[in-house]
């Protein structure tokens, strides 16, 4: 099981707010954040631009809300995956996180939404950047926690390598059109864990 790290409470949205966020999420992921304007989002959500701005304040804040929602979906997906796979050891949890990538990517043909967003949002002070950075730090922290539970030595170094494998699979799937990247990363992670020294 994952080490418990609670997300901040989800903001309660009005029905119009939910439609806006759902429309923005679909459009941002499918077409790219910068190419989608607020007019298209308002039209897809069947609201006025005034309603969009009243609810979210700006497109930048809507982008942050989209990524926060996607982060919650990722956490819920992993919880479901681990409940189904029932990993027996911390090592199995780590490998399950890699094995889960294959199913996630079946529904995420454009790759990792966080990586995609980080490329489009160059400004380090963009409201969405803490969400993007936080999601990647959470993955690394999970690898650290499971490595510690497993009794591995040099857990920070191990977590760094696992994160590079995990994120590399996401990038290779999208940029290099390597459809089997999650499976390659899973095997590489297994080899890494099998050879890593223990305390």
Automatic annotation (TrEMBL):
InterPro entries: Homeodomain-like_sf, HTH_TetR, Tet_transcr_reg_TetR-rel_C_sf
Keywords from the named record: DNA-binding, Transcription, Transcription regulation
Gene3D superfamilies reported for this sequence: Tetracycline Repressor, domain 2
Keyword Transmembrane helix among record annotations: no
Pfam families, alphabetized: TetR_N (PF00440)
Residue ranges annotated for the HTH tetR-type domain, each copy included: 14-74
Presence of keyword Flavoprotein: no
Residue ranges flagged as DNA-binding region: 37-56
Superkingdom as given in the UniProt entry: Bacteria
Protein name in the entry: TetR/AcrR family transcriptional regulator
Organism taxonomic ancestry: Bacteria, Bacillati, Actinomycetota, Actinomycetes, Propionibacteriales
């Amino acid at each position: 099981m994952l080490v418990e790290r609670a997300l901040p409470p989800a903001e309660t949205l009005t029905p119009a707010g939910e439609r806006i966020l759902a429309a923005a999420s679909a459009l941002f992921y499918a077409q790219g954040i910068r190419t989608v304007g607020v007019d298209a989002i308002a039209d897809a959500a069947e609201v006025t631009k005034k309603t969009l701005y009243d609810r979210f304040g700006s497109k930048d804040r809507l982008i942050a809300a989209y990524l926060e929602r996607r982060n919650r979906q990722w956490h819920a997906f992993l919880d479901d995956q681990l409940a189904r796979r029932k990993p027996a050891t911390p090592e199995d949890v780590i490998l399950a996180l890699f094995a889960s990538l294959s199913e996630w990517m079946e529904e995420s043909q454009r790759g990792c939404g966080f990586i995609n967003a980080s490329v489009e949002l160059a400004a380090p002070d963009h409201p969405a950047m803490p969400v993007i950075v936080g999601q990647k730090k959470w993955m690394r922290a999970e690898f650290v926690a499971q490595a510690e539970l497993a009794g591995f030595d040099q857990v920070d170094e191990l977590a760094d390598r696992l994160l590079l494998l995990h994120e590399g699979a996401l990038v290779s799937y999208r940029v290099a059109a390597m459809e089997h990247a999650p499976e390659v990363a899973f095997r590489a992670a297994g080899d890494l864990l099998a050879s890593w020294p223990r305390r």
